[in-house]
Design goal:
There is one protein chain. This protein has three helices and eight strands; from the N terminus they run ααββββββββα. It is an alpha+beta fold. It has two domains: 30 residues, no CATH class; 125 residues, Elongation Factor Tu (Ef-tu), domain 3. It has a six-stranded antiparallel β-barrel. The longest helix has 12 residues. The protein is globular. The N terminus is likely disordered.
Amino acid sequence: MRIAESHQFSNSTRRRLTKHHKINCMAKGLSFSPIGYVRSPYSETSQIPKGFGAQHEAEGVLELSSEYEQGLQDIEGFSHLFVLWLFDRVDGFDLLASPPTDTRPHGVFATRSPRRPNPIGLTVVRLLRRDGFRLRVAGVDMLDGTPILDIKPYLSGVPTDQVKRGWLAEAEERMRDTPSA
């Protein structure tokens, strides 16, 4: 069964999805090939800053395969990038996660936990410069050698006053209200 047949779409949307996506909902798996790898100062997850006030300022390199260099044309005009990457050192997943920023468990889709049904990571980095097929960036939170699936320019049309931080805002408030030892 194709995705277009499995949902209630209009006929025109169904034709478009069937023609262009050809995603088989019953597929046993998907296959992605990395476009490159992260060069990072972190070799172990324990080295990556986590929790309240964690600053992700570490510099690293997004090293793409040279065959993708042309795809980087004009990227220098953007200050920040989305990096989609693979949690390649994680086995299995949990539907509830206990993040370092809260004592309460939350649904995995409401956290940044690496133990996800599809182990895909998303990070926003600051572009420092481009050197051919290498992007020097700041704000890495990935391990050295992490496979990169895609890079996109960071664009946000959401006004700051409309952004909600969900349970994280509540956890931060509880931390502020808790006296220090």
